[in-house]
Hints:
Blueprint: H1 2-6, H2 14-20, H3 28-32, E1 34-37, H4 43-52, E2 56-65, E3 68-76, H5 77-83, H6 87-102, E4 107-108, H7 112-115, E5 116-121, E6 127-130, E7 136-141, E8 146-147, E9 150-153, H8 159-162, H9 168-176, E10 182-184, E11 191-195, E12 199-202, E13 205-206, E14 211-219, E15 239-241
Antiparallel strand pairs: 1-11, 2-3, 2-15, 3-5, 4-14, 5-14, 6-12, 7-11, 7-14, 8-13, 9-10, 9-12
Amino acid sequence: MTDRFAHLENLLEADVQQRLLSDATRGQLNTAGYFHAEGLIQPRVCQALIDALAGAEFIEVRRNDRRGDTHFFTVNGTDLEARLPGMDGLYRYLGDVAAHLAERPLCGLDDLSIGLSLNCTPPGGAFVRHFDRNDVSASVMLNTVAGGALELWPNIYSSSVGALGRLANRTVMQLSLLKRPVRIPAAPGDVVFFSRRTLHGVAAIEGMRSRVSLIMAYDQPGVTYSQDQDYYGRADTRITLETLNA
């Protein structure tokens, strides 16, 4: 299993990779708020990752607030790298891609347990709309499911909204109800990059298959994430999933 994921050339579609890193894409993340790299990861790799996580220990996340319900299972980056050595190489590579798309220096978070994760969202589960605290994120989709689209409100957090201070987040959440999101269906091998200013979430999973994805977080060099911050990847309780049903 180690050899299968240790070399990037065995993971990526070369033609997509070449187009992704062209001069034409430089800085596009800033103007559009997101970038959809279709088919970057080879489909056989996506399935191999799903198969390799059967029987792994996951953290179960259940949350409810005024935005709705969130329910999914996650393997944090530290546990993921221990089980599948080589994932940190993909994490670093997509960080270089994110830096190209954002046209500024970016690197992985100083704590791998929150910088990298594999999420499994079961039937009926969802992830409510929210902002990430890091500068840029990448969502690597590993399978196709009914429902479960990644929903984006690109660059909705503008400088004018930010000037509202404490009212900013509430204003954005109300504004998002009036705007139709960009909806990107789950598709094996697609990678979606989005910025901190882009509100996003995952629509409810329909049917009987779970949605599986890798989530990678990046920030500017020198930014630290102290151990007293609340992130689901730092939870201690684990549950074994014998099958991902994906």
